[in-house]
Design brief:
By secondary structure, the protein is an all-alpha fold. It is built from 2 helices and no strands. It starts with about 25 loop residues before the first helix and ends with a helix.
Length: about 100
């Protein structure tokens, strides 16, 4: 008990709702904006998971690349395998979501 607390995690504190609202208004606005942004992202992810038949609208070009240490034939074979796997996964996801089809 004599030793003081050196470091305190910020998540240990909560807002006291009995205090006046003017004190923490800017903090609450920033938190509200962050929570709403996160909720909208989660809503989009849930909709994408729930509807696998919806196509991808935008793909970042930086996710694609080429391994220059492999030959072109190996890259083409890998690409064909990846496309076949993706088609199989799409069929499985559609069958899972629509078992009546």
């Amino acid at each position: 008990p004599e030793v003081g607390v050196e470091s305190v995690d910020s998540t240990c504190f909560g807002r006291n709702y009995f205090n006046s609202l003017e004190v923490d208004e800017s903090i609450d606005d920033n938190e509200r904006k962050a929570v709403l942004a996160e909720v909208s992202t989660l809503k989009k992810i849930a909709a994408d998971y729930h509807h696998p038949e919806v196509v991808v609208e935008f793909v970042d070009p930086t996710v694609f690349g080429r391994n220059y240490f492999k030959s072109a034939e190996v890259v083409d074979a890998d690409r064909e395998q990846v496309l076949a796997d993706a088609a199989a996964f799409q069929k499985i996801a559609t069958d899972y979501h629509h078992p009546e089809v």
